[in-house]
Amino acid sequence: MIYINRLKYEKIVDQARREIPDECCGYLGGKKSGEDIFIKKVYPLTNIDHSNEHFSMDPKEQFNTIKTIRNEGLVMIGNYHSHPESPSRPSEEDKRLAFDPSILYGILSLEKEEPVFNLFKIDRDKNVEKLKYEIV
């Protein structure tokens, strides 16, 4: 099972709302224990594309964030981004750019009044699996 801390989930929602009309993006840090994944920390990053249809993360910011995650005794669990005007599912571009099948891909939709957050696994063949998670 995947567990995400409620305050960290709310941090993603707050970032996504603040960055409208652009997509927001960031990394998820945490711990793994057997089959369980615990998302402990959210690391907001800058969408250098400043677009509402796609995002690119700043490479220097990415490198520094990975260093921070490791220094805090966590592992990089995955990344997330928002879809300001579309559903919480990977777009064709999201699938094409999903290079690492070992991480989680989070997508927060702000299409409707109530945000919708989903986590996905995307394998090397670009097959998408929606994962269950719990907010704790």
TrEMBL record:
Q: Which organism is it from?
A: Clostridium tyrobutyricum DIVETGP
* Keyword Zinc attributed: yes
Question: Could you cite one Gene Ontology molecular function of this protein?
Answer: metalloexopeptidase activity
SMART domains reported in the protein's UniProt record: JAB_MPN
Name the record gives this protein:
Mov34/MPN/PAD-1
- What is any Pfam family matched here? Prok-JAB
Q: Which domain of life is it from?
A: Bacteria
**Entry's Gene Ontology BP terms:** proteolysis
Q: Which UniProt keywords apply?
A: Hydrolase, Metal-binding, Metalloprotease, Protease, Zinc
Q: Keyword Transcription regulation, does the record have it?
A: no
Residues forming the MPN domain are 2-136
What InterPro entries would the database entry show?
Answer: JAB_dom_prok, JAMM/MPN+_dom, MPN, VirAsm_ModProt
Q: What is the lineage of its organism?
A: Bacteria, Bacillati, Bacillota, Clostridia, Eubacteriales
